[in-house]
Amino acid sequence: FAGVIVVAVTVEDGFKEHDRILISDIAAMLGANIYAKRMKLAAEKSNKVSREMLHAMIPSKVIDKIECFWDESSTEYRTRRSSFQYDYAENEESS
Fold it and tell me: What are the pLDDT digits (tens) for 9-20?
């Protein structure tokens, strides 16, 4: 589905320059919104396919043990991430 702006005018080229700029900005925003939605759907599909491939190659017990490294909602991920950032900041200060 593509967004369309239809504006009926009795005068040929009856829009002032500011009106044309506004219409083109609205069209650009609609296009960017559609593009962002498509990119989000493509990323979700890619993520789903990647997970299916991962589950096909690696046993579920192993995945359960290593899932904390990429599951941002887990407390272990946040703990490891914060300790990594702390270590990185500490190394930067000592350099």
Answer: 666 676 788 888
